[in-house]
Amino acid sequence: MAAEFLSTALLLFACTSLAVGFYKDQLFGADLGAGLISNAFGVGMTVTTLVYSFANVSGAFMNPAVVISFLVIRQIELFKAIGFIICELLGSIVGTAVMYAIFPDLSHAVHMGATELGPGVTPAEGCSIELLLTFLLVFTAVATADFSGDLRQMGRFAPMVVGHVVLVDCIIGVPFTGASMNPARSFGPAVVGGYWNNQWLYWVGPISGGILASITYHMLFLSEDIEKIEKS
Predict the structure, then answer these.
(1) What digits encode the pLDDT tens for the residues 173-200?
(2) Which residue ranges run through the membrane (predicted)?
(3) How many Cβ atoms from other residues are within 10 Å of residue 219's Cβ?
(4) Has this prediction a pTM greater than 0.70?
């Protein structure tokens, strides 16, 4: 439980700090496209590092949508899932609060690094984008997890794969929704800064996309793998 709290706190600190840095770069006339790519790279590499660091302790979920997705296909116990989600949400608040304590003025300028809809993007469109981005993320996470034994026994390169998917998702989604893919990512800044606009879509979209991804993978591949394991 503590690992999920700490890893999510570190993730939120990194994500919100990157948002502050991105905003500061724009003040000095930095190229928007280059800033987007560097921001996406920072988030992706942060996820990779945290998964490598915490996967053998708790699985390094850091995301309620991922936890629920694994719960749906019975790869995590209910009470453990509830505990993980609570710790992740608390960690998201602490991570954002630490960033705010370090950058109080700039934090307000970027709404605490909150995920927000881009110009002209409707809530329905934003929810759909979050669903699709999270589908790709969770499908990859489920595919790279080793279900033949302990959930935490992941392939050596799995954290890199997951981190690269996050990087790509950020490049695609940041201009439209901020590319949350994670209710905890949006929850921390909302609590610390009070920015609750369209908060619902950052829960409905990622959780729906994650559940669809895990069920799809389970139906296509996982059920056959489990059958083979049980027979052997």
Answers:
(1) 999 999 999 999 999 999 999 999 999 9
(2) 82-103, 123-145, 157-180, 200-222
(3) 11
(4) yes
Q: What pLDDT, on a 0 to 100 scale, did the predictor assign at position 108?
A: 83
pLDDT, tens digit (0-9, with 9 covering 90-100), for 34-90? 778 889 999 999 999 999 999 889 989 999 999 999 999 998 999 999 999 999 999
Q: How many CA atoms lie within 13 A of 232 on its CB side?
A: 7
Tokens 């790519």 found at: 37
At 123, which CATH number?
1.20.1080.10
Task: Say how many domains are in the chain.
Answer: 1
